[in-house]
């Protein structure tokens, strides 16, 4: 018998129960509030039990229009909250439709439980109707997998799945449930969260003290240090520790695409994103640093460019919870395996014990980095006859500075990464897999998690069409997501590469023929649609979008051939960027930049004219 206590914790007395009920009760015990899914034959017994549980208000199911949308929504929910996202799909095509979303979560280390229906146990392996071996199909893209053969194992399996998905390096876990297992009754004994012990699974969460001391020694010796911060800092909620470390040693900070939000991008030490479309000053800094402190990142090829020339003059400290990542692409002088937050807490505590205080040792390095920042800024083009995509993103960011932002994949994603200033967990983007169609369903997941927060999806006209059926989900549940489409009539990043590397042969990248009227499409779903064609409309239209009480799709007709710069071409090192602005004439006397507020001061000044900090 399922009842709700005063704290909404489900209480189940020992009883005869079905496997489907055991699954749902176990999800409740692990704090699940939302499930994103789509029913079908093999998973119908679970949905029948869900019908009864939903009636109590204990769980809310969000019916998506395609299983890929369910996986991306659960992913977005997990990224926004730090909790484990949950999605359902049936057997066969329902399960295979989840694969892209599972791979997206796996590549970006997102905690997720994926429940699939399966044909009856006796039919497995017979090519039964809607049977696929989803366990085998997903083996390379999950952290762990289960096929539930006995309903009595359900409580333990769910508890283990949550533990595996959310500890160590997070990731998706698959639970495949045969139809007859979901229907079978048994004597159900609940398994409480945290009660399982997995032999052989003990992620290292504390850094080795000797290695921590070695890292401190390198940092103290360095004159040109750089913090290189990735998604691991977001996963471990280590943004406060990253800031404290940066300020203690006056270290500039650059982030990966996954690490955006781990460090306040308004901070004078912030250099923005590095890599293929990173800021010029971040890429110059990583090329010239003498110490690279890698915090929860994995030396991805889009970051490093030509690997053997990446930070080639630097010693490396690598902090990561996954020992497989440490030394995989770059062998560090000081490897530290452990949870990023735990390691940084220990490192900062040790610094305090040693009496280390803020010094101006890196001031010359900061002056150089700030000179690069002035000479090679990110540019916002203003064309006479069209709106640049960068203008749109800057205006949206200005009017909604604290929103959750999701993106699809392409040029618009890189411009959003360059120009939006995001807080922790407020940047949600497919990085490792680069999944077009991710943006709208991920925004659904974030908005369901935070209904009172602004959630905005930055998309492109090609990406938007990958999962546009989820407009039906937005309409059904009134999920108040705002979607801004940079419509240039192209697969924009594909067109840019074809222009740069394929002799301007634009094979199959133009999207104009067959492009829907997006305003009418939105109206067909019962959603507000808008079109922006002129710069004079932009400010008021964005304000109107944000003020509307319901989902909105905004089709912004932007410059057709705008390219995303800076850009590190494949096979080049990070200092070899194309599309840099022309350098202004150098000043006869170099300024001194304040390490606290970043203000420029004449070299004769001893104190900052803006904030009074000693220079």
Can you give a write-up of this model?
With 615 residues, the protein is an alpha/beta fold. The protein folds into 4 domains: 15-188, Rossmann fold (3-Layer(aba) Sandwich); 209-376, TPP-binding domain (Rossmann fold, 3-Layer(aba) Sandwich); 389-557, Rossmann fold (3-Layer(aba) Sandwich), CATH 3.40.50; 585-614, no CATH class. The protein has a 6-stranded parallel β-sheet with strand order 5-4-6-7-9-8, with helices on both faces. It has a 6-stranded parallel β-sheet with strand order 13-12-11-14-15-16, sandwiched between helices. A 6-stranded parallel β-sheet has the order 18-17-19-20-22-21, sandwiched between helices. Strand 8 (144-147), helix 7 and strand 9 form a beta-alpha-beta unit. The longest helix has 15 residues, at 67-81. The radius of gyration is 25 Å and the shape is globular. Mean pLDDT is 94; it is low at 1-7. This is Acetolactate synthase. Belongs to the TPP enzyme family. Residues 18-135 form the Thiamine pyrophosphate enzyme N-terminal TPP-binding domain. One of its GO terms (molecular function) is thiamine pyrophosphate binding.
Global mean pLDDT: 94
Q: What is the number of helices? A: 23
CATH class of the largest domain: Alpha Beta
Percent helix among the residues? 25-40%
Main sheet summary: 6 strands, parallel
Which ranges are low-confidence, i.e. pLDDT below 50, for 5 or more consecutive residues?
1-7
Shape estimate: globular
Can you list the strand order of the major beta sheet?
5-4-6-7-9-8
Q: What proportion strand? A: 15-25%
| Structural class by helix and strand composition | alpha/beta
CA distance, first residue to last residue: 69 Å
CATH topology of the largest domain: Rossmann fold
Radius of gyration: 25 Å
Tally of strands: 26
Q: Tell me the name of the CATH homologous superfamily of the largest domain.
A: Thiamin diphosphate (ThDP)-binding fold, Pyr/PP domains
Number of domains: 4
CATH architecture grouping of the largest domain: 3-Layer(aba) Sandwich
């Amino acid at each position: 018998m399922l009842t709700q206590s005063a704290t909404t914790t489900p209480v189940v007395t020992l009883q005869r129960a079905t496997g489907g009920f055991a699954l749902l009760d176990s999800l409740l015990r692990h704090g699940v509030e939302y499930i994103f899914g789509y029913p079908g034959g093999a998973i119908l017994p679970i949905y029948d039990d869900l019908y009864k549980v939903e009636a109590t208000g204990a769980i809310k199911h969000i019916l998506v229009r395609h299983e890929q949308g369910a996986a991306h929504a659960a992913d977005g929910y997990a990224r926004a909250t730090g909790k484990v996202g949950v999605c359902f799909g049936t057997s066969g095509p329902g399960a295979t439709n989840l694969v892209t979303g599972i791979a997206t979560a796996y590549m970006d280390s997102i905690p997720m439980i994926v429940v699939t229906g399966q044909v009856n146990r006796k039919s497995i392996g017979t090519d039964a109707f809607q049977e696929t071996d989803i366990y085998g199909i997903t083996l390379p893209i999950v952290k762990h997998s289960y096929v539930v053969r006995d309903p009595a194992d359900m409580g333990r399996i769910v508890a283990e799945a949550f533990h595996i998905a959310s500890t160590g390096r997070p990731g998706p876990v698959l639970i495949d449930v045969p139809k007859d297992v979901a229907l079978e009754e048994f004597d159900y004994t609940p398994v409480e969260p945290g009660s399982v012990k997995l032999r052989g699974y003990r992620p290292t969460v504390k850094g080795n003290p000797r290695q921590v001391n070695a890292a401190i020694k390198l940092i103290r010796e360095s004159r040109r240090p750089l913090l290189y911060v990735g998604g691991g800092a977001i996963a471990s909620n280590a943004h406060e520790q990253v800031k404290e470390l940066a300020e203690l040693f006056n270290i500039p900070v650059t982030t990966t695409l996954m690490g955006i939000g781990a460090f306040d991008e308004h901070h004078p030490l912030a250099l923005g994103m590095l890599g293929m479309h990173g800021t010029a000053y971040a890429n110059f800094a990583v090329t010239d640093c003498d110490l690279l402190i890698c915090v929860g990142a994995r030396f991805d090829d889009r970051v490093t460019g030509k690997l053997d020339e990446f930070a080639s003059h630097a010693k490396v400290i690598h902090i990561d919870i996954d020992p497989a990542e440490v030394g995989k692409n770059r062998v560090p002088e000081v490897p530290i395996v452990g949870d990023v937050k735990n390691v940084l807490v220990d490192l900062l505590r040790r610094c305090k014990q040693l009496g280390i205080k803020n010094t101006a040792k890196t001031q010359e390095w900061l002056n150089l980095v700030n000179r690069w920042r002035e000479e090679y800024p990110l540019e916002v083009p203003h064309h006479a006859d069209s709106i640049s995509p960068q203008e749109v993103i800057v205006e949206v960011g200005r009017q909604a500075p604290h929103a959750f932002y999701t993106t699809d994949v392409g040029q618009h994603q890189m411009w959003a990464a360059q120009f939006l200033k995001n807080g922790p967990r407020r940047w949600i983007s497919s990085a490792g897999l680069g999944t077009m169609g991710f943006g709208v369903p991920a925004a659904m997941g974030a908005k369901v998690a935070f209904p009172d927060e602004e959630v905005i999806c930055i998309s492109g006209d090609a990406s938007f069409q990958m999962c546009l059926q989820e407009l039906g989900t937005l309409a059904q549940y009134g999920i108040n997501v705002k979607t801004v489409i940079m419509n240039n009539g192209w697969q924009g990043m594909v067109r840019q590469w074809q222009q740069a590397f394929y002799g301007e042969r634009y094979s199959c990248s133009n999207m104009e023929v067959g492009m829907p009227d997006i305003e009418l499409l939105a109206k067909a779903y019962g959603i507000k649609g808008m079109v922006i064609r002129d710069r004079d409309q932009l400010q008021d239209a964005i304000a109107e979008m944000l003020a509307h009480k319901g989902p909105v799709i905004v089709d912004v007709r932007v410059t057709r051939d705008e390219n995303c710069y800076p850009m590190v071409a494949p096979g080049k090192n990070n200092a070899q960027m194309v599309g840099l602005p022309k350098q202004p004439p150098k000043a006869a006397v170099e300024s001194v930049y304040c390490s606290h507020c970043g203000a420029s001061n004449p070299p004769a000044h001893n104190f900052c004219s803006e904030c009074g900090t000693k220079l």
